[in-house]
Amino acid sequence: MTKHEFEVEMTCEGCSGAVTRVLNKLGDVKFEIDLPKKLVWIESDRDVDVLLETLKKCGKEVKYNGTK
Fold it and tell me: Of the candidates 1, 3, 36, 54, which lies 20 to 30 Å from 48 by C-alpha distance?
């Protein structure tokens, strides 16, 4: 599985909770959230565009930083 890094404009636990909810609904992904650095790492075989659109559902600004 490929590990992707995204920058998500998260400011609180509620924000990271929203990210967790949308990613859990997607299924078949492993992810880590670093709230202070506003980063989310996702391990998945899904297309980057699918991951990006899923993250945008949490209502935050999202930027793809590439693979890690």
Answer: 36
